[in-house]
Amino acid sequence: MTRHFWVLIHRYAGLYIAFFLIVAGFTGSILAFSPELNSWLNPPAKIALQDKPRLDEFTLHEKALALSPHSLINQLNFNRKPDEAYSAYLESRIDPVTGKPYELAFDTVILDPYTGDQISLENRMITEIWPITRKNFIPFIVRLHYKLALPGSIGVWLFGIAALVWTIDCFVSVYLTFPLRISTSRIDVHNSNSRGFWSRWKKSWLIKWSGSAFRINFDLHRAGGLWVWLMLLILAWSSVGFNLNEQVYAPVMKTLFNMTDPMAIVPKLDTPIPEPTLSWQDAQRIGRKVIAQQATLNRFSVLKEEAVQYSADYGAFFYIMHTDRDLNAEIASTWLVLDGSTGKYLGINLPTGQNFGNTLNGWLFALHMALIWGLPYKIFLAFVGLVVVMLSITGIYIWLKKRQSRQFSNIRKSGLT
Which residues are 305's β-sheet partners? Predict the structure, then answer.
């Protein structure tokens, strides 16, 4: 495996992933600001502040279900903003006659949180991406980002393979920036640059702006990749996690870092249980009690209550809280599991500090999705996305120029013979 071998690996790996990275880089730069863009394109329903208390979540939950008797609402949010209307996503009950879900005329109920009066009944769950509208613009960009907006799983697999090749190529590419080894017989004792690895590697980090177009492109490709190399590796490997999680990412993370599956806390049921036996009020009450006990036991601080979710597939409630173990102050990532029939405590997931592999996993995905460090990091991530595009384009340019050079050289040789 000579250096030339790794050059060939880098060349053809780069040619395979270039198109995918151009798409991912451009769309990723947009998605770094997806919450802000989506709020601008589709502002949430607002309500005028009133000098009286709002109805509690359980009362609003019942009023919303009364408008759609064939529906279920499997999440209650306790952390709504004062001027935010109550909105709930509806899931279909199973028709006992047909054994199939009821067809719903709408999937979202929006109510006045002070009175419970209906504001609107809407269809907000986006399933179609054509034609592109304000409602589905961000979902379209998301699909384009990780699956080329292709139907089925073919796009997921194509992007997943590209992400895996990209991850491997991150190590190949950094190796190719290392200076060539110098034979001891050729060392010039009067030239320090010929002896020190770091002084000779420094050249790879610089761009000679006064050089030819080819030299500038080559330096941009090499130095640009070095300056953001760690971020490129993070994006590449976390992309494998998004697209090839069960096939590649999870087994590797489990083997190398002892990452565990948070959902292993509770086994998935063979037959889903559509509705819990335990009441939502009891789920909240038990959740509050258990989270306080776990906070003392595991030495973390509870900041605020976020939501209670019920999962039919697991027959369990998920009680979600903001704690000081969360990476993002706006997104609650600490949750515990309660049996949906008895309320029995089944386990807890802490996003950081519970297991090194899971903590690393949380950081990787938070960095990929710009969930930490606010606007400065979003700007940086958008910039890295454009760097990914630049690296892909300069890589194609370098390959084309070298290919032309080889072809011209072959023509000259054939002419001489």
Answer: 321
Alpha carbon of 112 to those of 118, 216, 240, 290: distances in Å? 6, 60, 43, 32
CA distance 326 to 354: 12
In angstroms, the CA 61 to CA 111 distance is 10
Write b or e for each residue in 236-245: b if 16 or more Cβ atoms lie within 10 A of its Cβ, otherwise e: bbbbbbbbbe
State the DSSP string of 354-407.
S-HHHHHHHHHHHHHTT-SSHHHHHHHHHHHHHHHHHHHHHHHHHHHHHHHHHH
Q: Is 149 left (phi over 0), alpha (psi -120 to 50) or beta?
A: left
Q: Please give the Cα distance from 111 to 60 (Å, whole number).
A: 8
- CA 26 to chain CA mean position, Å: 15
Residue 118 bridge partners (DSSP): 111
Residue-wise burial string across 159-178, b where 16 or more C-beta atoms lie within 10 A, e elsewhere: bbbbbbbbbebbebbbebee
| Residue whose pair of structure tokens reads 């906070």 in the numeric block | 295
Q: What is the CA radius of gyration of the chain?
A: 27
Contacts of 224 (CB under 8 A, 6+ apart): 387, 390, 391, 394
Locate 105 and state its tokens. Answer: 């005329």
How confident is the model over 252-292, as pLDDT tens digits? 999 999 999 888 888 899 999 999 999 999 999 999 999 99
Straight-line distance from the first to the last Cα atom of the chain, in angstroms, rounded to the nearest whole number = 33
- Cβ proximity of 139 and 75 under 8 Å: no
To which residue do tokens 């011209």 refer? 408
List pLDDT tens digits, range 63-119.
999 998 899 999 999 988 888 899 999 999 988 888 888 888 888 999 999 999 999
d(CA 353, CA 133): 42
Q: Under 8 Å CB-to-CB from 179, ≥6 apart: which residues?
A: 197, 200, 201, 203, 204
Tokens of 264: 């292993």
Distance CA 223, CA 285 (A): 56
What are the b/e assignments for 312-326, b being 16+ CB within 10 Å? Answer: bebbbbbbbbbbebb
